[in-house]
Amino acid sequence: MSLGKASWTLLNPLRGVLRPSASVLNRSYAALAEARAVLNGELESIRLAGTWKAERVITSKQGPHINVEGSRGSILNFCANNYLGLSSHPEVVQAGIDALKLYGAGLSSVRFICGTQDLHRNLEQKLAEFHEREDCILYASCFDANAGLFEVLLGPDDAVLSDELNHASIIDGIRLCRAKRLRYKHMDLGDLERKLKESQSCRMRLVVTDGVFSMDGDVAPLTGICDLAEQYGAMVFIDECHATGFLGPRGRGTDELLGEMDRVHIVNSTLGKALGGAAGGYTVGPKPLIDLLRQRSRPYLFSNSLPPPVVGCATRAVELLLASSEIAQSMSAKTMRFRNKMTQAGFTISGSAHPICPVMLGDARLASLMADDMLKLGVYVIGFSFPVVPKGKARIRVQISAAHTDEDIDHCVDAFIQTGRKH
To answer: Which protein family is it in (predicted)?
Structure first.
C-alpha cells in the first residue's frame, strides 16, 4: 500500500470527528454576522455625525510641499508634526541610508536578547545630553514610553496626579499602574494643590502633565506646578512630544522655555515629530529609574528594537540641534505671523505662541467641509472632532513648520479667508 493510501485509510475515520458540525458552523456564522451588524451600525453613526476620518494618500516625501492623490500639483502641508522640517532634511535622510547599509533593516529581537547595537546606546546618550538628564531609554513610540513608565515607578502606596486633558497615552499608562489616581482640572493650580493635600499620606507622588497640550497648543504652567511639587514633596513628569526640538532658546522643550529644567524629574518625548519624524519615543531621567525600566518596563521588554535606519535619522537630527539652535529659533516669528494674520481676519485661534494653531469652528461637519475645500485651494489641513476633541469644540489644527516660508503662511491665511466666506 502506498504511503498516501495508508495516510488516507488512517485519517478517514477521523474526518467526521474533526469536521465541525453544521450547527457549530451556523453558530459561528451567526456570531460573525451579529458582530458585523454592530460594527456597521457604529460606523454609520460616525458618518451621520460628520466625524468620519478619511485618510488622504500622500504620494511624495513629507515636507511643507507635498503631492496628494487626487489633487493636481504641489500642495502646501500645514498639519504635520514636522516642526523643524527635518523629516526630509538631506543629512537626516543620508544618515538613515548609511545606517541601513551598515546595520541592516532591523534586529529581529528585543533589546535584552540580541537587539542592542552601539547606535542605540549612542542615540540614548545624545538624548540624555540634549535634555541634560542622567540617562535615557528608547521605546518603539512615546505611547509605549508612557505605557511603560507608571506601573514600574509607582506602587499601591503611591499617588499620581494627572491633568484632566493629558494625552490618551498618559491616561492609558496611568490606568496600568496600581497607584492612587487623582485627576486635577486642566492647568488649575488650585485644584492641583487640593489633590496634593489629599494625597499627603502616600509614599511617593508624581505630578503628570503634558508640556504642551496638542489639541489646543497651550503650555502647562510648569513653574507653578514645580513650586507646588516642591512645597508638598512630589516629583514632576512632563510629556514633551510637542515641545522637544523647538521650544526654549535651544529647543530643549517646555522646561527650558520656562526655566525649570532642574525641577522636572522625568521627561518622555518622541522621535516621531520634530526629531526626524520617523518613529520612536524615549524616557530621560535619573539613572536608577532608567535602569529599572530596562528590567521591568513591558513595552521595552516585549517590543522589537528600533530599526537602525530610524535610529540613524534621529541621531543626526539630535546632532544638528546640539550643534545649533538656529532652526529652533526661527519658529517664533513664523508662528506669530500666522496667528496675527488669522486673528485680524476674524478667526479664533486657541492656545498661545505655539506652532500648534487650532482654528476653532465648533461644528464637526463644518470643520470637515472646510478642510476639504482648503485642499481644493492647495492647502492640506485636517478637521479635528469628537472623540479626538470634546463635542462642540471641532477645529482645524494648523501646524507651522520652520520649513514654511512667509509666502506659504500668507497663502494658507488667504485660503482660510476664502473658505470661511463660503461657509
So the answer is: Belongs to the class-II pyridoxal-phosphate-dependent aminotransferase family.
* Residue 255: predicted pLDDT: 98
Q: What is the SS3 string spanning 252-275?
A: CCHHHHCCCCCCCCEEEEECCCCC
Distance, CA of 126 to CA of 217 (rounded, Å): 27
* Second CATH level (architecture) for the domain 90-323: 3-Layer(aba) Sandwich (3.40)
Q: b/e per residue, 55-65, with b = 16+ CB within 10 A?
A: eeebeeebbbb
Catalytic residue (one of 273, 334, 341, 404): 273
Indicate if 28 belongs to the active site.
no
**Of 251, 268, 259, 415, whose CA–CA distance to 347 is shortest?**
415
Residue pair 244/253 in contact by the 8 Å Cβ criterion: yes
Q: List pLDDT tens digits, range 70-128.
A: 988 999 999 999 999 999 999 999 999 999 999 999 999 999 999 999 999 999 999 99
In angstroms, the CA 87 to CA 301 distance is 28
Catalytic residue among 87, 141, 169, 214: 214
CATH node for 65-83+325-422: 3.90.1150.10
**What would the pLDDT profile of 345-401 be if each residue is shown by its tens digit?**
999 999 888 999 999 999 988 999 999 999 999 999 999 888 888 889 999 999 999
Q: Is 89 a catalytic residue?
A: no
What is the pLDDT, as a whole number, of residue 16? 53
Q: Which of the following is catalytic: 89, 131, 167, 242?
A: 242
- What ranges do the domains of the chain cover? 65-83+325-422, 90-323
Quick check: do 65-83+325-422 and 90-323 share a fold?
no
Q: 485642499: which residue's cell?
A: 375
Tell me if residue 197 is catalytic. no
